[in-house]
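Because discrete structure vocabularies remain unfamiliar, we reproduce here a specimen of the format, pairing a chain with its fold in token form:
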Amino acid sequence: MLIVRPLLIMPVIAYRRPDARRDGTTPSDRDTPMNTVASANVSGVEQAVMTKVAWRILPFLMLLYFVAFVDRVNIAFASLQMNADVGLSSVAYGIGASAFFVSYFLFEVPSNFVLSKVGPRRWIARILMTWGLVSGAMMFVSGEKSFYVLRFLLGMAEAGFFPGIVVYLSRWFTASYRGRVTGIFIVAIPLSGLIGGPISGLILDGMNGVSGLRGWQWMFLLEATPAVALGIGCLWWLADHPADVAWLSPDQKDRLERMLESERRALDSEARYPLSAAFANRAVLLLAGTLFCIVFGTTGIAFFLPQIIKSFGYSNTAVGFLSAVPYLAGVIAMVSWARHSDTHRERVAHLATATLFGALGFIALAFLLHVHWAAMIALCFAAMGVYASNALLWTLPSELMTGTAAAVAIGVINSLANLSGVIAPSLLGWSRQVSGGFALPAWIFAGFLILGTVLTVLFSCTPMFTASRRALGKAV
């Protein structure tokens, strides 16, 4: 993480458009209806504040999500030993992977509603500590029933974490920076594979048999411990609002609060929506549908990438290191795509392009599975598309709504979308079992991502999206 910070955060946050004037504005900025926000978007003062905020909170939030995703998907590596040890078939493994998303769906919106009332700091800390305890308990899996129960409890514990972080970021970063910031934060997902994959592979082989425990049991125990420690750390490292911190000067606090409040007022003046809109608005539901398709792709990579590479005949340790390659491609794509989106102040076309790019990667994979090096390249393209689209989509909800409605809308989008996680592992486990390989699952991934492209285009035609473009000076 210490290596990633200067490479990813500072150049991205401090970036200034090449056509910017000395005061930080651009010709197009001064022509926007909401010039108080648009001209501030690239001002030197705002850059300084945003950079300071980014250095303080983004590495920590990335670390939290890194640990969260490692604990969520490390069963993909555990399955290389655990399935045989406790008698799990491909279908049973898929059902257990899906059980996480069932409880995640059921408890996501209630969790995010509570977060909006008690504040992100305390609630995020609670989430971390409880999921760490449950994730560690996965070492006691002894059969299908215990596997299903613990995966269900893990989803319940983690529900609300990601949308809560999205809400938290909207309290600290202005709209013109959220694409880059969200992209940087979500880089933790592919980083969990880039770094966590090799670590998991090494634990599986290196700790196997130590103190009478199998490698997969050690992996669950060792990878769960940081979540509990970081949950405690949240209570003193995070703050709910800029006004609550000592590391910003009074002038910086005031300026940041005024910029954020200016955006909220502008958005409310054009598009003020009641809480009920979070549940029934067409734009919200289309975003949920798009994310559903994206999550299908990320679920496939997270839960089946190690098995695909293992089918090439490599050891567990080699699988861990080779699985890092597509994730590295995903990291590069997420940062560059999000930065390009912010530079051009456009979201939807970038999102649609990313989902289509991921679909083409999976289509190529279906044809190239027997050519191992070519299959790895196809997996890299697929990872680039799904992870870039994931980052871009999460810039949109906080630019559609404000306040509790935004928090609940984010929860609704994430909750409905993660129903994909209920369906995908079981469907893919079944399709692999009946087809005898990974070509059919790859076609299924591609089909869902193409559907996501179509839903993105439909989202761009909604009245809510049009209103948000007017409010934020067409910055979405």
The longest helix spans residues 44-73.
